[in-house]
Amino acid sequence: MAKLKLGPIEDDKPVKVAVELPAAIHRDLVAYARAHAEDNGLNHPLPPERLIPVMIAHFMASDRSFTRKRR
Fold it and tell me: Residues 6 or more apart from 19 whose CB is under 8 A from it?
């Protein structure tokens, strides 16, 4: 099986933000969390709210236009 794009997730002091997600996206996040736990040898999947910030950071880091404008 191919590796997921998210690797281990660092523990950092969070800033609380409320976000409303469509049910389908939440279901996909729960499924992704299970796959992520399996790939990284975790006993239990992380809650989706722990995945979302890492996914957003990865998305922004891979957006070349954003990184150019940020300089």
Answer: 52
